[in-house]
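Hi R.,

Here's the chain you asked about this morning:
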Amino acid sequence: MTSSSKLQHSNSLPKDREPALRVMPLPADANVHGDVFGGWIMAQVDIAGSIPAAQRAAGRVATVAVNSFLFKQPVFVGDVCSFYAEIVKTGTTSVTVSVEVYAQRRRLDAEIVKVTEATLVYVATDDARRSRPLPAL
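And the predicted structure, written out as tokens:
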């Protein structure tokens, strides 16, 4: 194990934040070897990121960009995945969200591994799905 991968392991999830989403991948979400599909993780990241974006927009949002997406470690069937989402920037109509994903492996051992980092951009939309300004804070 390299020193950089050692840094990705810890004994606990971030204590100062609440996850936007927690989910356990099932066998249908993985290949025959039990490795979870990257597309499944991407979909969950999008859902997690949309939660604070929709709250800030006070309504409907649409994903318009994935600025970065890094798979740091694999996710396995049975891992409990915690998705932490934080707004990092807002524009007139847009909300940029950073999402970090941690996998709790072997639930009895409680090994925690940071598995994914991503940054996504959402745009507030109206009922006709046209962009609209974010409400004032």
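The first strand starts at residue 9 and ends at 10.

Let me know if you need anything else.
M.
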